[in-house]
Amino acid sequence: MTSYRQVLAVPGMAPLLGVSLLARTAITADVMALTLFVVLGLELSYAAAGGVAAALTAGVALGGPLLGRMIDSRGLRLVLLVTVTAQVVFWLGVPVLPYGLLLVASFVAGLLMVPAQAVSRQAIAAMTTAQQRRAAFALESVQGELSYIVGPAVVILGASTVSPDVVAWGVGAAILAGGVGIALLNPPMHAQDETDAVAAERPPRRQWLDARMIAALTMAFGTTTLLSGVDLAIVATLREAGQVSWAAVVVVVFGVSSVIGGLVYGALTRPLPTWLLLALLGLVTIPAGLAHDWRWLCVAIVGSGLLTAPTLGTVADAVSRLAPPGVRGEVTGLQSSAQSAGFALGSPLVGVAIDLSVPAGGFVAAGLAGLTAAGTGYLLSRRSPARQRRRTMPEPGAGRPTLSKRP
Fold first, then answer.
1. Using one digit for the tens of pLDDT, what is the confidence trace for 140-170?
2. Which residue ranges does the record annotate as region Disordered (predicted)?
């Protein structure tokens, strides 16, 4: 635990993690809040609710890199001012918007979502040393797991005991508080020794979006595809067993296991490669389909849980190490977009597998998605950095560097 004490002793780190946890918990709950509002408040179908959720998710995926680039060029506080204002307007308006306008507004709100996760990752990279970074990103991934455990549960409880309108306002208020808190802390986005690199001309995208970066983003996408699929497979398995009411217990066990796994992994002295962690996560997910009772499913899902936070934390660490300081905001935004796309794809992918086979097929599909992403990441990351550099060097007689076409 010495490594965690060192990370939390970094000036500003503990307040940043606390405030960003509040914002991320609210942001994690936003899809559930909108779903319950459409179903309970507007009394429309779950398909209609899914449309609103998809619009919000698509906006988040597209907006991540754009907001990250704005942070790189305009600074953190301006981006927070714009996004916090947009969220306040959206969540105040949710209870009075008709469905058509809510659909459009959800997409815009996703585009201008407060980038709490991306900001915390970028700040961690700026505030910690290379030796501290793995433990710091482990804490960040644990923070994410806690937000997934708490956020949707609080929204469901509020919607069932108060009203979906009040819940929508509550989510907006929490996002406001988190965004304002981050703005007041104003964490550094770059380390002190990176000043010259940030002030220099922005490196072209072809220079940093190389095979290794694509590998890291692919594994970020594959990890969340797997996790989104596992959530659906849990519900499908318990529904077939007539025990769907126990799904929340299984999800909590999964989340707690992830928290434990993240804390243990972050304290280790020797890290594992990202592709290996993701491959192990995929392998241990597949056998969970053998469980047909909520008790056995709780046991079967522990292996996946223990590897979830370590995999997410290692992906974030890899991206931060590969990102040049001048474009770190954009790169971190790309990572958030890749993960959002994975969450969006995982459920329909696994849903098709379940429809074509049995609920256990959902765990198989999710595990295979993780294994595929791990294999792709391994092959891409094995490409020689020296070869990559040679490909950016000018040909004899050329006036400027050129890149060969990638296969």
1. 888 888 888 888 878 877 877 888 888 889 9
2. 382-407
Cβ burial 310-324 (10 Å sphere, 16+ → b, else e): bbbbbbbbbbbebbb
For 215, the 3-state DSSP assignment is helix
> What is the model's pLDDT at position 385?
54
Q: Tell how many helices (H) and how many strands (E) occur in the chain.
A: 19, 0
119 and 213 fall within a common domain: no
For 100-119, the three-class secondary structure string (H helix, E strand, C coil) is: HHHHHHHHHHHHCCCCHHHH
User: Which residues, 6 or more positions from 73, have their beta carbon under 8 angstroms from its beta carbon?
Assistant: none
pLDDT class for 193, splitting at 50, 70, 90? low
- For residue range 7-61, list pLDDT tens digits in order: 888 898 999 999 999 999 998 888 888 888 888 888 888 778 878 888 888 898 8
With respect to residue 79, please indicate whether it lies within any of the assigned structural domains: yes
Number of structural domains in the chain:
2
The answer to whether residue 403 sits within a structural domain is no
Find the domain containing 301 and state its range: 203-388
The packing angle between helices 2-9 and 130-161, to 10°, is 80
Measured CA distances, 341 to 222, 226, 228, 334, 377 (Å)? 9, 12, 10, 10, 17
Query: CA 333 to CA 196: how far, in whole Å?
Result: 22
SS3 212: helix
Please report the pLDDT score of residue 372 as a whole number: 96
Query: Do 126 and 189 contact (CB within 8 A), yes or no?
Result: yes
Within 8 A by CB and 6+ apart from 60, the residues are 110, 111, 113, 336, 337, 340
Which tokens in the block code for residue 130?
Answer: 């290379």
Based on the fold, state whether residues 372 and 241 are members of the same structural domain: yes
Statement to judge: residues 47 and 88 lie in one domain: yes
Helix, strand, or coil here: 301?
A: coil
Q: Please indicate, yes or no, whether residues 312 and 182 belong to a single structural domain of this protein.
A: no
| Domain co-membership, 169 together with 257 | no
- What's this model's pTM, rounded to 2 decimal places? 0.78
> Does residue 399 form part of some domain?
no
Is 275 a domain residue? yes
Dihedral (CA of 379, 384, 390, 392) sign: positive
Question: Do 134 and 111 sit in the same domain of this protein?
Answer: yes
For residue 299, the domain's CATH number is 1.20.1250.20
- Chain segment 212-227, per-residue pLDDT in tens: 999 999 999 999 999 8
